[in-house]
Automatic annotation (TrEMBL):
CDD domains: HAD_like. It holds the Pfam family HAD. This is Phosphoserine phosphatase. Gene3D superfamilies: HAD superfamily/HAD-like (3.40.50.1000).
Length: 278
């Protein structure tokens, strides 16, 4: 008799404001330009408006233009160094081994994914990068010297949903559209929507939150502790039925996020047990 596979749960995370406070570009990159963060983002918005461009592509191009004007070399190594200095919310570093352990004890397997409008290369430089099966985030093309020369991938609030479907169908390669566009019956999809948990904090996460929630999964809105208006904004997402819960961005074992995610896993486990007994 063949051994039954463990049910797989996918946890999808935004990055900025979800796992890390603030915007990743504001830790080291923008300060090295010698301009206030607010000025940089305002200029990116104006560039998008004037060129009728995507906001993510605009900030990425502005990064390249500003770095060139300042004679800053931004290559893969530098991006990784920026990423290594990013702060993480309480408990994030310990979250992954602990939540993986809870899943294993209950006969489940967890796969972690990033779905972010931030920069892939910076996230890859963080201490938590090895825990992710896949990091979906905006990224650059590079020349023969590994220097960033052009945006390769821009992930905005609507294109984020593409990666939810990629995870659902196990079509994980960003450049491969052969599987993502094929019809796959719900029961044959690798990770059902009901086994997905999306954790995010802002407006760019709303389409993913709503998609996962409406398809039978769970969405959690998190907020930065002590940030003015953040808690109210997260609660509004719950009131608007875009998320199931609004929780403080605290990933420690005694925190609400840990407890809620464990409860969701218990629910998935019970559902799988019922299916197998039927």
């Amino acid at each position: 008799m063949s051994k039954r596979k463990k049910p797989v749960i996918a946890i999808l995370y935004d990055f900025d404001g979800t796992l890390s406070p603030g915007n990743m570009q504001e830790y080291d990159f923008i300060p090295e330009l010698g301009v206030p963060a607010k000025s940089f983002w305002n200029e990116a918005v104006e560039l998008a408006k004037s060129q009728k461009a995507d906001a993510i592509l605009s900030y990425m191009k502005l990064m390249l233009d500003k770095a060139k004007a300042k004679s800053l070399k931004i290559d893969r190594k530098q991006f990784s160094e920026y990423g290594s200095k990013l702060n993480l919310f309480d408990g994030v570093e310990q979250w992954f081994p602990k939540i993986n352990s809870y899943a294993a004890q209950n006969g489940l397997l967890i796969q972690h994914f990033i779905v972010s409008s931030g920069l892939r290369e910076m996230i890859e430089g963080t201490v938590i990068a090895p825990y992710f099966k896949k990091i979906y985030a905006s990224g650059f093309m590079y020349d023969q010297h590994d220097v960033a020369v052009w945006p390769a991938l821009a992930i905005n609030y609507t294109t984020k949903t593409q990666y939810v479907f990629r995870i659902n169908k196990d079509s994980l390669d960003e450049s491969d559209n052969s599987v993502i566009n094929k019809y796959v019956a719900e029961e044959n999809r690798v990770i059902p929507f009901s086994n997905m948990i999306f954790i995010g904090d802002g407006e760019t996460d709303i389409p993913c939150m709503r998609l996962v929630k409406d398809k039978g999964g769970h969405s959690i809105a998190v907020y930065t502790p002590n940030k003015k208006g953040a808690k109210e904004k997260a609660k509004q997402l719950v009131n608007e039925k875009r998320a199931h819960a609004a929780l403080k961005a605290d990933y420690r074992e005694n925190g609400d996020i840990f407890k809620i995610v464990c409860s969701i896993m218990d629910k998935v486990k019970a559902s799988e047990d019922i299916k197998r007994a039927s």
